[in-house]
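hey m, so remember when u said the tokens were messed up on ur end? i reran from scratch. heres the input so u can diff it against urs
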Amino acid sequence: MELTIEAGKTERQYWKDLWNYKELFLILTWRDIVVQYKQTVVGILWAVLRPLLTMLAFTFVFGSVAKLPSEGNVPYALMVYSAMLPWQLFSTALSSASNALVVNANLVSKVYFPRLLVPTATVGVAIVDFLLSMAILGVIMCIYRYLPPIQFFAVIPLALLGSVLALGPGLLLCSLNVTYRDFRYIIPFITQFGLYVSPVGFSSSVVPEKWQALFMCNPMVGVIDGFRWALLGTVEFPVKPLLISVVFATALLVTGVKVFRKTEKTFADVI
């Protein structure tokens, strides 16, 4: 691997190095996936059981106890599970990216490469979990004899948006976590709190009109409603929430990269 050091052109050279190290990115991604699933049944089952158990709990609490309405004629369980898909993708990617440098401390402190590759590569595990959960969705749809609408394949760009939405704050927390290890305790709280303020266990339509503007400030609202539009076809295309999600995803990614790059030079010394 040839490295070039030019005075005053560090930033441009850094992005060139990212491209030059693309094979390392693929290796790191594959390694994380193998470590997650190799010689373990729990790792694979957990990717399936987590959304299923959450779906059952939310269906019982919100659907049976609270008697909240579903969307159209869609079974409540199917409405919840379609929202669990993007939420699991987001929460897994955020948690993995946030802890990536601490987990790979030996690699970071011994070898030079663009450190941005490490948290970015962890998103691959979240994507694999997402694909496994999508397969289970197919089984659930068969059980309920529910045929997805024609816009089904819109889940691909929506999943990409959810991944970018997680990567931005993931990079920010990752850089902070290297110096301040207390942040690792904050991450589970963020994901748990976000689960309940996002329309996972309930429909966005049950939120009162006076709170809708504040509710849509949650960038995951657009992604989740987008998934329900794509998978169930029971809601209108969420134009405004999705635009808010795109703006948040872009702003958070730019901020995360800037903070990460600013603190990257100290990682090897403090990790």
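this time it looks ok to me. The two ends are 25 Å apart (CA to CA). if urs says something different then somethings off w ur setup not the seq
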